[in-house]
Design a protein that fits this description.
The complex is a heterodimer of chains A (about 140) and B (about 170).
Chain A lengths: L1 H29 L1 H9 L6 H24 L3 H24 L18 H26 L1
Helix pairs in contact in A: 1-3, 1-5, 2-3, 3-4, 4-5
Chain B lengths: L2 H24 L1 H9 L7 H5 L1 H4 L9 E3 L1 H9 L4 E4 L3 H6 L1 E2 L3 E2 L5 H11 L5 E5 L7 H11 L4 E5 L2 H7 L4 E2 L4
Parallel strand pairs in B: 1-6, 2-4, 2-5, 5-6
Antiparallel strand pairs in B: 3-7
Chain lengths: ~140, ~170
């Protein structure tokens, strides 16, 4: 019974987390210039670096999202998502330290502004989900 | 190193490489514009004024700026705010201190604008918010005319007004 519940939980985690990252990636792929602007607002990268990250990052999110939903290469995708969320949280925390009041740029540009603390909280939840998935997939593969 | 660790590192490397390849291919044009600049070679103003252009970074596609960044530049008086909307709309209400350069009159009034503002001026162009493309079109024209630092304020006048920042004309 517990094993079955655990399997269902893994599937729910996979699809939820995969859906979130697939959505986040696709909306950014649709408007890379706006996303570059969001990255530029963090004032962490040089001019071209903003575009480079805006070109690549949404595809990492999309591919990881698709892999999680399909159940293929789950551990690799989950670990990448853990790393991404860690980086996002550091970047968000740096905006708080530097007194920058910016939109996190996590999802669609032009929506309601998300504060850095809210985004950090959300990233923590996503990080916990991804870490749990990576751990569960490891246990099931051993 | 443990076999499962090697396997997971391989998976991660594969995902990142695939994403990098697809991302670079998909956004090739954008990245090329950002790297090399977006100034057409036939632009007379930029081509003739070589001295003024010496040592500058090449212009690229205009980057969007958020409300807070625009306000920061505005408060420090580091940017010239340009209103891309038509004259009537501008008179009805605009960001205090903004210069009117309606997109429909941009071609005829560009020379006058350029006499007033040197090409080193940092410009922030806005119009009527996210649904409005005039700021983007005008920003492209300004870059093509030789301006090197042109931003777009995508939230435009509605976002600025809603935030309670200084406006001139129109309803309070």
């Amino acid at each position: 019974m517990t094993e079955i519940a655990g399997k269902y939980l893994t599937v729910i985690l996979r699809i939820t987390l995969g859906g979130v990252f697939l959505y986040a990636g696709v909306v950014k792929i649709a408007d890379p210039v706006a996303f570059a602007g969001n990255i530029a607002a963090y004032k962490l990268l040089p001019y071209f670096g903003n575009y480079l990250i805006a070109a690549i990052l949404p595809w990492i999110e999309t591919i990881c999202g698709l892999l999680l939903i399909s159940g293929c290469r789950v551990r690799g995708a989950a670990v990448i998502i853990c790393a991404l969320n860690g980086i996002f949280m550091v970047a968000l925390f740096s905006t708080i330290v530097r007194g920058l009041d910016i939109d996190c740029g996590c999802f669609r540009d032009g929506g309601e502004k998300t504060s850095a603390w809210t985004a950090i909280g959300r990233d923590l939840v996503l990080l916990a989900m991804a870490a749990s998935l990576a751990r569960r997939d490891r246990q099931s593969s051993t | 190193m443990h076999l499962s660790t090697i396997k997971i590192l391989r998976e991660m490397a594969g995902i990142c490489l695939l994403a990098t390849f697809v991302g670079l291919t998909w956004n090739y044009r954008l990245l090329h514009s950002a790297w090399t600049g977006n100034v057409p070679s036939a632009t007379p103003a930029a081509a003739t004024d070589t001295k003024a252009n010496q040592g500058r970074e090449p212009a690229a596609v205009p980057l969007p700026l958020g409300l807070m960044q625009v306000k920061e530049l505005y408060d420090r008086k580091e940017a010239t705010i340009v209103d891309a909307r038509d004259g009537v709309t501008y008179s009805a209400g605009h960001i205090t201190g903004a210069v009117s350069l309606p997109i429909a009159e941009a071609d005829s009034r560009l020379a006058e604008f350029m006499n007033r503002f040197p090409r080193a001026t940092l410009l922030v162009v806005y119009c009527n918010g996210y649904a409005c493309q005039d700021s983007r079109t005008l920003a492209d024209k300004l870059i093509a005319a030789g301006y090197q630092t042109v931003f777009i304020f995508e939230g435009g006048f509605p976002e600025w007004q809603d935030a309670g920042y200084p406006v001139t004309g129109g309803n309070p």
